[in-house]
Amino acid sequence: MSLIKTIKNNFPVLSEPDLLQEMEKYCVYRNVQEGDNLIDIGDEVLFIPLITQGTVKLVREDDYGNELLLYYLNSGETCASILTCCMSKTLSEVKACVLDEVIAIMVPIRIMDDWMRKYATWRNFVMLSYRQRMEQLLTTIDNIAFLKMDERLVQYLQKRSQELQTKILLGTHQEIADDLHTSREVVSRLLKQLERLGKIKLSRNKIEIISLV
DNA sequence: ACATTAATTGTGT
DNA sequence: ACACAATTAATGT
User: What's the pLDDT tens digit per position in A105-120?
Assistant: First the structure.
């Protein structure tokens, strides 16, 4: 599929003819396999990825190498923290792990400065990504600060199923525990409770959501 | 089809 | 949190 068409499909806000033409000229596709990193902490940021397929998990690391989940990115989204890095010309503070084979359109940052000035469409897009991500980060912080683990788990399941458009979440309890920064046993026990309440159905590497309300 | 092994999940302390 | 049991999936024969 042509680059322009892909952009129109995934990033409808960017359909301004002049901008699209420039994008076709300067952007490149990049394919990243599951398990690889789109970007790592300390990397120099040369491109902004616009995700058109797959899922990316953004994490930050503390001094001891513990990973802190920031958020997930899906198609039609871009990474706000990478945007900040490239605008202030600093190294990446986050790691972007590819969970599900990703195809991204890579926008070179040198051309981006130009676009910020020339295209209101582009500016708006950048600002919108910021705003959305900021809101999401705030709710994440609220959750960590105020919600008990069982409520956090339910929220986590809801959000993931919504994001991935599926009632069936694949993966292990350990992975969920890592994301929520708790132990695997706590997750297993809470999930078991939810199953007893008939809200989910558990099997190995799989959680089927019946109804979380 | 069966046995072996590894990984995931469940539970008591 | 840890240790261990039980269950399930993957692999070899």
Answer: 999 998 988 999 999 9
A66 touches strand C (CB under 7 A): no
pLDDT of A11-62, one tens digit each? 999 989 999 999 999 999 999 998 889 999 999 999 999 999 999 999 988 7
Q: What pTM did the predictor assign?
A: 0.80
Residue the block writes with tokens 């400065």 = A113
Helices A3-10, A17-26: inter-axial angle, 10-degree rounding: 120
SS3 labels along A86-117: HHHCCCCCCEEEEEEEEEEEEEEHHHHHHHHH
CA of A12 to C1' of B10 (A): 47
In strand B, which positions have an atom below 7 A from any protein CB?
7-12
Tokens of A41: 């902490």
DSSP calls for A4-32: HHHHHHH-GGG--HHHHHHHHHH-EEEEE
A110-146: b or e for each residue (b if 16 or more CB lie within 10 Å)? ebbeebeeebebbeebbeebeeebeeeeeebeeeeee
Residue whose C-alpha is closest to residue A37's, from A126, A86, A99, A109: A99
Which of A151, A167, A155 is closest to A201 using CA atoms?
A167
Statement: the CB of A205 is under 7 Å from strand C:
yes
